[in-house]
Amino acid sequence: MVIGAVVHSIVISEVITIVTSTDRMSQFIEKQLNIVEAFCEHTQLPRESQFAMKDEIKHRARSVISSFHEDKEQMKELITTGKYIPRWLLGSLPGKMFQGRVLRNQLLMGNLYLPPRLPCLLAVNLHQSQFEAGEIVYQMHDFPFTLFMVLRGTFAHVAVPSEQGGVDTPCEGEDPVVLAKKLSGSGQKSGILSLFPEMAATKPEHQDGAARTTNLYPYRLIGCNSYFGDVELLRSRPRLSTVRCESQTSWVLVLHKTGFAELKDQFPQFAALWGYASRGREWTRTKQLGRCKIGLPYRAIAALQIQRFWRSPQRRPSNDASNPVGEEAVQGSATGPEASIQRVARWSAVTAKKRYINSTSLRFMDRDVSCEGGHATIKLQKRVDKLSEEVGGLREDVRAIMQALNIQRSPRAGAEPDDGGARGEVDGTSRAGAIEGL
């Protein structure tokens, strides 16, 4: 009897929960449909557009209703005041929100100390959104309102390929319903596609507006745990490119520009880092845009990028790059020991120049992101001091090398013309001593 009563109560509670959640979902959908219907009547939209908007709301209602929209200000106050949520509990939350995807996103990556309130406040302003393959997230010349953090799937900047490089262009006159059903990466077949038969693009069977998007191909991929849409928000300018969803059923976390502006005001050191990162990301995008000379699907683009990375000179072992003062520098080459010493001197000078430039950029970065008592200033100052010491040591090495070269080139007074053996022995000793000084 007792066990039966307990099981019955559990079943009744589950039924009540399901009915309550279903009723909440119905109320939310009904409210949104009424708003859309009033908007369509106000703007005199045709019935086709009205039905399409209602269908999309019904389709996406489950992901929208699961998002946190109510009482955001009260939750922000609980996080910032620290009156009701202790510090130890607040520090354990970021790694568990959205299954830890927020903390692993590149938006929060960096060398700065990450305060736990930053990801918590970021999560309050986020809501999930779903995209299908071929759906345009935003297009060129749109005014930016949101930033996107990728949870699952692949997105890409798309453009029109040409012999001189890709050309960013908007997708004017697109039918969003047909566009969402279009297969991504459709286009012409090339030599690389013979290695990937499953990637060979075929022309989709649809007409009208979607047919005009077949000339757009991906050139920069955006994968999981990455983000996009930040460049235009930070520069307060229209969208510079068109972004399209490439994989089936992709999910993102959407951050509105008001929430992004609040985070920049509350965490100025991260605002400066986001600015530096956006400039580097935009430079990389424009560089990849110049390489877009033939249309390929996004899987072939990914394969080419992986091959280019593994075949790059930076990954090949090189004696000159990894060990410029190697056996050849010590024993001498076909052109003599002086050429080896000169090569070492040039390498030291170039390395010193590069490190000096890096230390100078870090000083400017430290000046921009410094805040009184902040961890950013301490870490950056330590890095600048360390680089300054290394540059000073490299300068001393270059000075010693140049002095050794001057000794070798100076006239040898008192030496006999026929005393070649003694002169060679002295030259070999001085050169060996100069190299050992490195």
UniProtKB/TrEMBL annotation:
<protein>
    <recommendedName>
        <fullName>Cyclic nucleotide-binding domain-containing protein</fullName>
    </recommendedName>
</protein>
<feature type="region of interest" description="Disordered">
    <location>
        <begin position="410"/>
        <end position="438"/>
    </location>
</feature>
<dbReference type="InterPro" id="IPR014710">
    <property type="entry name" value="RmlC-like_jellyroll"/>
</dbReference>
<feature type="region of interest" description="Disordered">
    <location>
        <begin position="313"/>
        <end position="337"/>
    </location>
</feature>
<dbReference type="InterPro" id="IPR000595">
    <property type="entry name" value="cNMP-bd_dom"/>
</dbReference>
<dbReference type="InterPro" id="IPR018490">
    <property type="entry name" value="cNMP-bd_dom_sf"/>
</dbReference>
<feature type="domain" description="Cyclic nucleotide-binding">
    <location>
        <begin position="222"/>
        <end position="263"/>
    </location>
</feature>
